[in-house]
Amino acid sequence: MLNGRRTLRVCFLALVVGVMGAVPLLGGSAVVGSVAGSMNATIGGHALLPNTTIFSGDSLQVNDGVAVVALDKASRMVLGRETTASFLKSSDEVTVLLSRGNLSMYHTGEGVALRVKIGD
User: Fold this and answer.
1) What's the rounded mean pLDDT across residues 23-44?
2) Rounded-to-integer distance, Cα 75 and Cα 85, Å
3) pLDDT tens digits for 9-30?
4) For the chain, what is the radius of gyration of the CA atoms?
5) Which of these ranges, 17-21, 55-59, 84-88, has the smallest mean pLDDT?
6) pLDDT at 112 (0 to 100)
7) Which contacts (CB < 8 Å, 24+ apart) does range 87-93 have?
8) How far is CA 4 from CA 1, 8, 11, 13, in A?
9) How many CA atoms are closer than 13 Å to the CA of 17, on its beta-carbon side?
10) Can you point out the beta strands (E) in 6-75?
């Protein structure tokens, strides 16, 4: 009975260590911001819902609608209809790669810098 408990504890400890070791692998993408609201928009092919977290590398597509993304501090970005954009975040800036469409930005100047790259 005592030997069975010891085996169970060792297995549990191994599981915890394994999960803790995998966390850095899962958390590799930097957070860009979150969705404040949207209509007829998708991210990675899934419906874009309020409070969805936007990660570096995500691609957002707006069809006949709109999407509002809240960035750090008080910065906001509004993506208009027929817009496709992806996001990249480094330690000191967020870059929006605008493939098509339009966007409006409000940036307070605080926090990370915002850049927009259009086309190639």
Assistant:
1) 80
2) 17
3) 544 444 444 444 443 444 557 9
4) 20
5) 17-21
6) 84
7) 87/32, 87/54, 87/55, 87/56, 87/57, 87/58, 87/60, 88/56, 88/57, 89/30, 89/31, 89/32, 89/56, 90/30
8) 5, 6, 11, 14
9) 6
10) 31-43, 46-47, 53-55, 59-70
